[in-house]
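Its record is retained below.
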Amino acid sequence: MSILSGESTFMPDIEFGGISKLEGRRNSNLVKLLHINIIGRAELKFLKPIGFEYLHLHGLTKIHKPNVRLRLFLSLCRSPHNLAKLLNPIQTRLCKYSVKDSFELVDHLGNNNIKGKTMCSFDVTYLFTNVPLEMTIEIFRDQIFLNGLKNNYLFL
């Protein structure tokens, strides 16, 4: 478990200058796609925003609710949202395992005996960005088996 707390394990946030490097790489790749006729000028204009920023999450307090709850707002201004909209259908076709919605998940699980089982999902690719995927899965698997939980879990 020491790997999860080590400073060498996790990448620090990208400095402010890193944003412009990412924007430059993205724009360069879009121009390459234009030159090899994968996208047209209209798509290039659609996909190439002016400027680039991290997404910002803002919160406003709900003063009319007890326990000072927050209403969260995600600002997509100057984010590569249009590029994500274009890439999503491509990623969906290429993804080996995915479910469209909770109804499809229920249909898939209906074919398995899940009574008395616990199901959990880990998005380990983005949770531990600097730890190899196989190592992360191995850590979780070892913890499950070491704690005697293997009989309660359904592995799909």
